[in-house]
Amino acid sequence: ASAARRLQKVTEAEINELAMKARFHVEVKTSEDEASWSATGLDSVAYLISTNPGEPLNPVEKIASGGELSRVMLALKASVEAGQTRSNGNGKPKRSTSQRTLVFDEIDTGIGGGAAEAVGKKLKILGAHNQVLCVTHLPQIASFADHHLLIEKRESSGRTRIHICQLNAQQRTEEVARMLSGAKLTEASLKHAEQMLKANA
User: Fold this and answer.
1) pTM of the entire structure?
2) Which residue from 145, 17, 2 is spatially nearest to 83, judged by alpha carbons?
């Protein structure tokens, strides 16, 4: 129960940092029916959320939109990362030396603008102590990356193949500009891309 309360508190704070004013609750129910006990234990855990003021808490999977689900997932992973920091006995935090790989596949679903920028910032923070792999279509998120890989589908000999290449600085600016304005590059989109990459480096 104490672990659930800690997770609840940290996750709610993380969610609010992702441009989403919400209440978050971790509900733990312990079953006394031995027939329901399994290898995963005798507790059932539910994540409840209220995404609008005055609305009751409900299961995340029932009321959250695609964009909200993406941010809740990111907030939970960020909360687990925060839990990796532990005391070294002197009252000062000590981070685990083990590095993890976190994969976010299209975490930008259903978001844009300020929310996308908030997600990009959070991913960069996670990337300071972990390897973060993120598939995104949004320039606000891509501009925070340390390395930018372009993934394309190409048809060859009647088959579809995936081509991946790492972009250099100029190619990256052009790709972010395309993400901003479409296939046709313009002077304005290139300038905007340069500014975005510089600001988020």
Assistant:
1) 0.79
2) 2
The pLDDT tens digits for 27-71 are 998 888 888 888 888 888 999 999 888 899 999 989 888 888 888
Please say if the pLDDT value at position 26 is more than 70: yes
Query: Buried (b) or exposed (e) across 128-158, using 16+ Cβ within 10 A?
Result: ebbebebebebbbbbbbbeebeeeeeeeeee
Task: Identify the H or E element spanning 45.
Answer: strand 43-50
- Are 54 and 38 a contacting pair, CB within 8 Å? no
Q: Sheet harboring 23-30: ordered strands across?
A: 23-30, 43-50, 58-59
d(CA 116, CA 19): 9
- Taking Cα atoms as reference points, which of 162, 14, 35, 22 lies closest to residue 78? 14
End-to-end alpha carbon distance in the chain: 40
SS3 content of the chain, % helix, strand, coil (to 5): 45, 25, 30
How would you class 101 by CB atoms within 10 Å of its CB: exposed for 0-12, middle for 13-18, buried for 19 or more?
Answer: exposed
| 94 contacts 124 by C-beta, under 8 angstroms | no
Q: How many CA atoms lie within 13 A of 122 on its CB side?
A: 30
